């Protein structure tokens, strides 16, 4: 009996699971099928980044992608962060930033805490303490852009996950 078959009785076998080498082949190409929406998300992404430190942008995108288990976006943003000069230590420790606070500035920690809360908004909303911490480190315009960035990466994560995008296949 192979690993993709399960015995149903002494005479027959049926497939237990279908192993597809590329599940994305069965999913829609979001950019091609909803080009206006795709361009709108790209526009939102670009607008959200305005005025924010590029290193902080990548840290936020990496953290949300960790939380959402989006390998496609995680690969893309760690690659971008490395190209921008981000250290391997910080890239590896974003996933556990609360236990490695000394690797991140107070401002970055505030942004990461807000990223956690907004990404997991269904768990407890955005606690006043988390919002207040972010508001203490970002002026109102920056805070609005940070929120937009968090919303945007969560949207990208959901698009990538829903369409089964594979890590390492981004065409940028």
Account of the 3D structure:
This protein is mainly α and 172 residues long. The chain has helices spanning 30-33, 35-49, 54-68, 71-83, 88-93, 106-119, 121-124, 128-137, 140-162, and strands spanning 5-7, 13-15. Strands 1-2 form a two-stranded antiparallel ribbon. The N and C termini lie far apart (43 Å).
TL;DR of this structure?
With 172 residues, this protein is mainly alpha-helical. The protein is built from 9 helices and 2 strands. The protein has helices spanning 30-33, 35-49, 54-68, 71-83, 88-93, 106-119, 121-124, 128-137, 140-162, and strands spanning 5-7, 13-15.
Secondary-structure element sequence? EEHHHHHHHHH
What's the β-strand tally?
2
> Mean of the pLDDT scores?
88
Quote the distance from N terminus to C terminus. 43 Å
Structural class: mainly alpha
**Portion of residues within helices:** 55-70%
Rg is 20 Å
Strand residue content? under 5%
State the major sheet: 2 strands, antiparallel
Oligomer: single chain
Report the principal-axis shape.
globular
Low-confidence stretches: 1-15
List keywords for this structure.
9 helices; disordered N terminus; globular; 172 residues; mainly alpha; two-stranded antiparallel ribbon
């Amino acid at each position: 009996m192979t690993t993709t078959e399960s015995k149903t009785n002494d005479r027959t076998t049926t497939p237990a699971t279908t192993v597809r080498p590329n599940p994305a082949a069965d999913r829609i190409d979001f950019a091609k099928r909803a080009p206006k929406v795709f361009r709108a998300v790209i526009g939102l992404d670009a607008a959200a980044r305005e005025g924010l430190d590029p290193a902080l942008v990548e840290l936020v995108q990496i953290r949300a992608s960790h939380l959402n288990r989006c390998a496609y976006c995680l690969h893309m943003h760690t690659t971008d962060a490395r190209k921008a000069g981000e250290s391997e230590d910080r890239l590896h420790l974003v996933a556990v930033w609360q236990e490695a606070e000394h690797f991140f500035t107070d401002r970055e920690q505030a942004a990461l805490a807000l990223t956690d809360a907004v990404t997991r908004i269904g768990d407890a909303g955005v606690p006043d303490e988390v919002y207040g911490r972010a508001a203490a480190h970002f002026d109102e315009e920056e805070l609005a852009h940070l929120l937009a960035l968090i919303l945007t990466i969560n949207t990208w994560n959901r698009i990538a996950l829903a369409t089964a995008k594979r890590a390492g296949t981004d065409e940028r």
